[in-house]
């Protein structure tokens, strides 16, 4: 814990140094006071022996000394002082309001808003809302929902003028609880407040919410779709133009225990028919054997489309070499000639 307090003092000194550099030509600052509620940190800062305190503490104390010396060279005297935890306004646990205090502070803020911004001329524009003071002195909308089973705050919502800072704060308060959409945020606000033109203000605030943009917006627009390849548009027999890919591995039972194999899916690019084959592994030999079984069942396709897997590329190279060798074989040439192929 003292090391975290030391980090806080270092950060405060850094910020103070940066601010003084920006305003030194505008304001003369002779003294700078840094308060902390950790007596251990104050002792570290005032003690010159740093070797026994650890490397991190030594680095922070060294940085504090350098910043203090630089500020002194600019005629800024730096003092470190102790403040009790109960008097430390930077301690969040000591400055939080309880429920009653928050409600009282909220009523004061709303009353100040209504007294400052809502005049009689403005109320005449909203005569259909039946705005008048309630038992707590706040202007509320007394509509026709008095006999409903809603809560009192929903039956008689507090009137807040639209497009004001308080209206923006209220919308933001409800929107930050879970980041709901426009309709949900409007419903939450109207459980306690009535803000004219609420939906348009909520839409504007939701659209400007950075977190909602990260969650809901696409980073880039989808590109325009290109034309389909020719193989998918011509009328052909099934499996004349196919696409090929592997999937797996798939667990199988072998004589020695449990093994694995892979599946091959071959899709007709025109009719969308599929042909499934099993391969023992990802080797090129297994790939060629799978193609032989497919050719025997479906016929030899005109084109095969696949990704650039090394197995597929090597298999393509082997098939091309076999075709070129067959073209040079006199037996094959004679047979093709006799069959007029």
UniProtKB/TrEMBL annotation:
<dbReference type="InterPro" id="IPR041588">
    <property type="entry name" value="Integrase_H2C2"/>
</dbReference>
<feature type="domain" description="Integrase catalytic">
    <location>
        <begin position="234"/>
        <end position="341"/>
    </location>
</feature>
<dbReference type="InterPro" id="IPR012337">
    <property type="entry name" value="RNaseH-like_sf"/>
</dbReference>
<dbReference type="GO" id="GO:0003676">
    <property type="term" value="F:nucleic acid binding"/>
</dbReference>
<protein>
    <recommendedName>
        <fullName>Integrase catalytic domain-containing protein</fullName>
    </recommendedName>
</protein>
<dbReference type="InterPro" id="IPR001584">
    <property type="entry name" value="Integrase_cat-core"/>
</dbReference>
<dbReference type="GO" id="GO:0015074">
    <property type="term" value="P:DNA integration"/>
</dbReference>
<dbReference type="InterPro" id="IPR036397">
    <property type="entry name" value="RNaseH_sf"/>
</dbReference>
<dbReference type="Pfam" id="PF17921">
    <property type="entry name" value="Integrase_H2C2"/>
</dbReference>
């Amino acid at each position: 814990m003292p090391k975290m307090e030391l980090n806080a003092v270092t950060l405060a000194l850094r910020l103070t140094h940066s601010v003084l550099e920006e305003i030194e030509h505008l304001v003369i600052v002779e003294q700078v006071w840094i308060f902390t509620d950790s007596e251990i940190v104050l002792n570290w800062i005032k003690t010159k022996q740093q070797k026994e305190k650890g490397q991190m503490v030594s680095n922070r104390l060294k940085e504090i000394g350098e910043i203090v010396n630089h500020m002194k060279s600019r005629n800024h005297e730096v003092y470190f002082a102790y403040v009790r935890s109960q008097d430390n306004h930077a301690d969040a646990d000591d400055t939080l309001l309880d429920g009653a205090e928050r409600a009282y502070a909220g009523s004061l803020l709303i009353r100040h808003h209504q007294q400052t911004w809502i005049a009689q001329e403005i109320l005449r524009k909203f005569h259909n809302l039946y705005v008048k003071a309630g038992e707590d002195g706040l202007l509320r909308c007394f509509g026709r929902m008095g006999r409903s089973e809603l809560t009192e705050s929903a039956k008689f919502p507090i009137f807040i003028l639209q497009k004001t800072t308080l209206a923006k704060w209220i919308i933001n308060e409800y929107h930050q609880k879970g980041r709901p959409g426009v309709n949900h945020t409007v419903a939450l606000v109207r459980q306690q407040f009535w803000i004219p033109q609420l939906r348009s203000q909520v839409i504007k605030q939701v659209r400007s919410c950075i977190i909602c943009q990260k969650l809901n917006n696409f980073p880039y627009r989808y590109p325009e779709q290109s034309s389909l390849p020719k193989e998918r548009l011509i009328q052909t027999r099934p499996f004349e133009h196919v696409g090929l890919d592997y999937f797996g591995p798939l667990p199988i039972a072998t004589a020695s225990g449990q093994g694995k194999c892979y599946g091959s899916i071959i899709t007709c690019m025109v009719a969308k028919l599929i042909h499934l084959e099993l391969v023992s592994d990802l080797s090129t030999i297994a790939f060629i054997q799978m193609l032989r079984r497919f050719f025997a069942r479906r016929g030899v396709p005109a084109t095969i489309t696949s990704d650039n897997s090394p197995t597929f590329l090597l298999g393509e190279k082997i098939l091309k070499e076999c075709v070129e060798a067959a073209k040079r074989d006199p037996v094959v040439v004679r047979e093709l000639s006799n069959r007029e192929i």
